[in-house]
Amino acid sequence: MLPIDNFREEVLRALGSSVLQSAVEGGELTVFVARTRIAEALQRLRDDPALAMSQLMDICGADYPGRPERFEVVYHLLSVGRNARVRVKVRTDEHTPVPTVTGIFKSAVWYERETWDMFGIPFANHPDLRRILTDYGFEGHPLRKDFPLTGFVEVRYDPEQKRVVYEPVKFQQDYRVFDFKSPWEGMTAVQLERENGEEGGQ
Questions:
Q1: End-to-end distance of the chain based on CA atoms, in angstroms?
Q2: What average pLDDT is seen over the chain?
Q3: Percentage of the chain with pLDDT > 70?
Q4: Distance CA 10, CA 122 (A)
Q5: Strands laid side by side in the 28-33 sheet
Q6: Mean pLDDT to the nearest integer, 19-25
Q7: For the chain, which terminal residue's Cβ has fewer other Cβ atoms within 10 angstroms, N or C?
């Protein structure tokens, strides 16, 4: 295995002008490349004999809603022969497609579908971009930071209809609003006084 600084130099040499920035994090190299050049970058990492990043281990997304380009698409590559990993990232927004890398790595077919399903990040020229983890009628993309934790619908089996039904989410109780005086919503003023040692006679 190459020392990380030497490995970084080899990666930067292979990727050339497509690199926007790079850093070593947690002992692993992270490289940002231009979105339009992601397929070219991954092909170079795969085909360069000094690197031989022959396996695409994963593609995932990250959401930073405060940024103009809110999404990062993250590619994890492994070189078995060099015993090395590299993390390649591109930035995009919810409307600008990222070029597919399915022509470079076949495993990207499902990984890109998963990233689309969870984050709504579009991939240009993907051969079959549709949901893979959620139901085909699912609304929204559940790993976006602005997606509600409860979702929009709940699924249950209805014994009378003898089928699965979809219904708007219903809550059995109202949200609790904690005031930091007590963890229990709805305590009376007397209970709060007792808890704070303000009861008469003390």
A1: 71
A2: 87
A3: 84
A4: 31
A5: 19-25, 28-33, 84-92, 71-79, 55-63
A6: 93
A7: C
Tokens of 181: 């005086």
From CA 183, how far away is CA 186, in angstroms rounded? 10
Q: Which residues contact 172 (CB under 8 A, 6 or more apart)?
A: none
User: What pLDDT does residue 139 have?
Assistant: 85
3-state class (DSSP) for residue 91: strand
Residue type, 189: A
Q: Residue 23, CB half-sphere, CA atoms under 13 Å: how many?
A: 5
Which H/E stretch holds residue 76?
Answer: strand 71-79
43 CB neighbour count, 10 Å cutoff: 15
DSSP 8-state code for residue 102: T
pLDDT 10s digits, 182-199 = 555 555 555 556 566 655
Q: What average pLDDT does the segment 160-182 reach? A: 70
Q: How many CB atoms lie within 10 A of CB 94?
A: 14
* C-alpha to C-alpha distance for 25 and 109, rounded to whole angstroms: 28
